[in-house]
Amino acid sequence: MPADAKRRVLSRFPNITSFLRYAAICVVALGVFAVVLLAAGKEPLKAYADTFHYTLANAYGFSELVVRMIPLLLTAVAVALPSRLGLINVGGEGQLYMGAWLASAGALLLPGLPVWVLLPLVTVLGFAGGAAWAAIPGLLRANKLVNETISTLLLNYVAPLIVSFFIFGPWRSAESSAYPQSAAFPDAARLPSFFNTRIHAGLFLALAALIFYWVLMDRTRWGVQMRAIGGNPEAALRLGIPVGAYVVIALAIGGGIAGLAGMGEVSGIHGRLRQGLSPGYGFTGFLISWLAGGRPLGIVLMSFLFAIITSAGDILQITQGLPYAVVNILLALLLFIVLGRNTARRTRRVHRDGSAG
Amino acid sequence: MSTPLALGVIAGAILSGTSLLYATLGETIVERAGIVNLGLEGILLIGASTGFAVTAASGSAYLGVAAAAAAGGIANLIFGWLVVMRRANQLASGLAMMFFGIGVSALVGRPFVGAVISGLPKWRPPWLAALAWVKSTTLFNYDFLIWIAVPVAVLVWWLLFETRWGLGVRAVGESSAAAFASGRNPAVVQFQALFAGGLLGGLAGAHLSLSLTLTWAEGMTAGRGFIAIALVIFSKWHPLRAIAGALVFGGAEALQLQLQARGADISPFLLDMLPYVLTILVLLAWGGSRRHAAPAGLGRTFYGTE
Amino acid sequence: MSNTPGSPLIEARQIDKRYGSVQANDKVDFTLQSGEVHALLGENGAGKSTLLKILYGFTRPDSGSIVINGKPTELRSPRDARRLGIGMVFQNFMLIPALSVSENVALFLADLPAVVRRGQVAKRLRPFAERFGLSVDPSALVRQLSVGDLQKVEILKLLLAEARVLILDEPTKVLAPHEVEALFRVFEALKTEGYAILFITHKLREVIACADRITVMRQGRVAGELTRGDADGETLVAMMFGTQVTDSPSGRTAQPPAKRVGTQGLLELRSACTRPSANTTGLRDINLVIEEKEIVGVAGVSGNGQKELGDLILGLQPLSSGRKLLFGDDASRWTIGHIRESGVAFVPEDPLVMAAVPGMSVRENLVLGTGRQYWKGAAVDWHRVEADMAGSFQKLDFPIPRLDPPIGALSGGNLQRVVIAREMAKDPRLIVALYPTRGLDVHSAASVRSLLRRARDAGGGVLLISEDLEELSEMSDRLLVMYGGAVVGEFAHGAWQMGAVGHLMTGSREVPGAG
Residue C341: its chain A contacts at CB < 8 A? Predict the structure, then answer.
C-alpha cells in the first residue's frame, strides 16, 4: 500500500496504531526471551509451552497472573495520572508503603469494628497514606522548591524504613516467628478473595482506579484542564488554570492510588504488615506507564505482559532450572529495545500529548 | 559519646563509606556531564558480582577489582548508547539499567555463591600498628581501595576542575550548545564521562564483595546506589564534599550497627532514614542556591520537559 | 588582515537573500573599513540580521559577492569567518553562567593546554583588558556579572582568538546608559588599533554618538549611508521609517504622559511598577487609562516592556508598587482566572505558545480559559460550547473549523481565528492584543484588525501592542510609546508624526519642537 494511503487509513483508526505498537512490543518480547533462553542453554519452544501451560491454560495459573497484575495496574496509574500534567512520579514504592502503613494502622488499632465499617475505612486509609506521602513532593514542586523527580525518589527509601520501625517496634507481633511482622489483621480488615484463588478485591480497586483515571482525564472538566497543563503549561497558566493546585492534587491522587496497592498487599495478600511488601512495584509501574504512553488500555496490556514475564520467571525456575534473574535481563533488554527505537517521537507523545486515548 | 563508641563509628564510617564514595564520585562525573543514571544500583551490582566471580575463579582479588571496574565502565557505555545516541528518556533508561544490573549480576554471581575467597589484603602502617588504641580497632587496617579513596576523590576533583577535559565535561553539562560552539563534540565528552563514572561505580561494587563482606549475594548493594545519587546532590556535585558526605552517610550506618551491638534502644531504621531526610532538608534549605549548583543540563531530565 | 586605516576590510556587493516570500536583502552593497566603527541601523525586519548572518558565514546569499581584504571569498560557515579574523558577539551570549570568566574564555581557546592554568589565561587577558578598557575579574563567575561585563567577556574571547573584525548584534539592547558609554569607549580604543567594529542597533542617539559611518536599511534595501558629520536625527529617522519629516513639526506633537486621576476607565494603572528579572524588563511608573470605545496603541521596539505591560494587566506579573484597577475595582491582587472572568481577553502573537494547547483538539481548546461558564457537574457542556462558539465565529464572519482535529494542525491564520473567536465569545470589555497580526498573511491580519475595531465600536477597550507602525497609525485612537520599561510619550489621534514616534522609540530624550 502506498505510504500516503496507509497513513490515511491508520489515522482513521488511532487505536489500531497503538494496538499494533503494543503487539509489536509483545512480539519483540517473545523474540528477545527466546534469544536469552537459548543463551542460557534452554529451549524456547518448550519454555513457551511451559509458561502457557501454567498460566493461560491453567485456571489457577491464570488467577496468579491476575494477582500479580493488581499492584502493577495501580502503581502504573499512579505514575500515569501525574504524567498527563507533565509530572514525573518515581515515588510509587514509597507511596505504596505509606498506604500499607496507614491501612495497617487502621486494621490494628481499630479491631473491634464490623467489616462493613472497617474494610472501607482501611481502604480509605490506604489511599490517604499514599496521597499524603505524594502531596509532600507536590507542595514542594508547586512552590518551586524541589522538583518532584528527586523528592519522590528520595521519599521512596524513607517509607519502608517507617514501616520497618513499626514492625520492629510498636506493632511487633507477639507470636514468635522467623521474621518480625505485625499482628495479623482482624478478618474484618481483610479484602475478600475469590474462587479459591488469591485474587482479592483489590482487583476491583485496580479496575476502579483505571476507570477513574480514564474518565477523569478524558471526560471531566478537570481532565481538560489537567491535560492542558501537560500540553502547554504557559498557555494553561495564561488561561487562568490554577496550575499549582492541580500539581499537588494530581500527585496526591497518584500517590493515593499507589497507596491502594500497598493496602491491597497487606489486606488482601499478607493479612499483616511486614517488610518487603514490594519487589519494586513502584519502579515497574513507572516503566509500564511509560511503555503504555500513559494510556489506560496500554497500561492493562503492559501490566499483563509484565505479569506473564515475571510468572514465566517463576515457572521456568521450577521446570527448567532457569535462574529468576533471567527475567530481569529480559525486562531490561525489552526496555532497551523500546527505548532505543523512535525515542524522540515516543517521549514527545508521553510528555506533550494532552489528547485523549 | 564514649571513645570506643566514637572510634567504632569512625572506623565503621570509613569502611562502609568507601564504596559510597566511589559510587558518588562516579555519578558526580556523569551528572556533571548532564546525565542522570538512576541505574547506578545496577552498576554497583555488576561491579560486585563481576569482581567476586573473577576473584573466585582466578584467585586474585586485584584481578577481580580490575574486572569489576571494566564491567562497570562497559555497563555505563550501554547506558550511554541509550541516552546519548538514541536520546532515550534518562529516567526510564536508568531504571532499565537497574533491572539489567540486577539480572546480569545474579547470573554472573550464581556459580560463585558461597565461594570462599581471600579478599583484598589489608595493610596497616607499622608505626600506627604499634599504638595500643589503634590495634584494637579496624582503624588504619585497610585494603588499597580504602587507602586510595581520598586520593581518588582529589584526582576526580583535579580532573573536573583543573584540566581541559574536565572543563569540557562541565561545559557539556551546563550548556551543550556553548560546548558545541567551542568546537567540542558533546556526545563524545558524555561517553568519556560515562565510562569514567562506570569505572568508579564498578570499584564501588568491588569493594563491597571483595573487602567488606567477602561474599556475593543477589541484591547485596541494598540501595547504596540510590544513597549515592542522594549524596551527589547533598555534596553539590563536588568531589571533595563527597568525602565528607560519604563519611556522614557511612557513619549513620555504622552508628546504627554500633548501637545495636550495645543493645541500645534507638531504632536502626530512624538512622537509616537520615541520608534521605538530610538530603531533602538540604535541598529545601539551599532553595535557589542549590539550583545554581546543579549542572544546568540536568534540568531537562528533572523537570520533564524536552 | 590589513591594518591600514580606511582600507576596506570587508565588501559586500549586490547581496540578495530571500526567505520564502520575503526579500530579506535586496541588492545590498556594504563596506566595512579597518579602524572604523560602523553602525547598521534599521527597524525590525529591515534586513540587518540577515546581512550579519551572511557576513559571518551563517547563511549564503542567493546572489552577490563578498570581498575580504581585496580577495573575493566564499564564507561557507562561521568557521571560515573565524579563520579570516571575523568574530561575532551574539545577542544571547555563548557563555556558561556557572563557570568563571577565565574558564569561559579558556573553553574557547584553540590552544588550551591539557592542564588549565587559570593564571595563564588571566595573564593573556590582561593586555587586552587594559588596552581596550575591558577589565573584568577573571575569577568571577559569569552569572554574577552584569550584562555589560558579559559583553566584555565575549569581546575578550574574540580578541584572544585574533579577530580583527568584531560584529555585534544589538549590543546595547540590554545595557544601562553608563554601560553603553563604557562600551563605546572600548570601541574607540579598538578602532585606534585598526580593528573594525560593526554593530546593529535601532537607537539613534548611540549611533550619532559613536559611529564613524552609518548604513541605514529599510525593507531589505540600503536606504542610505552617512558619515559621522552628515548624520543627524531627522535624516536618520527619515531613512529608517521612510517618511518625510518636516523640519518644524507643528505644536500638536507629543505630550508628556498625562496623569488622569479620577477618570474611571476600563483599565487604570497608577504608578505601576514591576520587578525586573533575568528575562523580563521591569516596568517603571506606568500611568495608563483605557476607556470604553477606544483602541490604545503601544509602540516601541520589542523588549522595552510591552510584553510585561500586557502580562501585568492580565495578572501574570505582580505589581511591585502602584495600583491596577479593572472596571473600577482594585484588581492588583486578582488571579489570572478572576481577571479573565471579569471580562478581559488576550489575543497573543503566537497562540500555540501562549493561548492554545497543541496536542488537544480544537473543541477542547475552545473551552479552555472560559472559566466556569460551561461546567455541567463534573463534565463539560459541549453542546453549549459548540453552540456559543459557532455563534462567535459567525458574528466575526469567520469560517467554522472542524472541531475534532488537533489544533496544532491548523494554519497560522486559522489558529489565530479560533483563539480570537474563543476570546470574543464572552463579549470581553477589555482586549489585550500582543502583536496579534505578527506572522499572519495579509488577509488574516486585515480581518484581525477589523474585528478589533468592531470590538471597540461595540463599547470595548483595546490595548494594541504592535511593532508595525503603519498598523498602529491606522488603528489607534491614542498612541503610547514605550522605551526602557516606561511610557515615554503619549499622542492623541492624528496628532503624531512618525518622526516623533521614531525618536521616542529609539530613545531620544527630547521631542522635536518641545523645547
Answer: 240
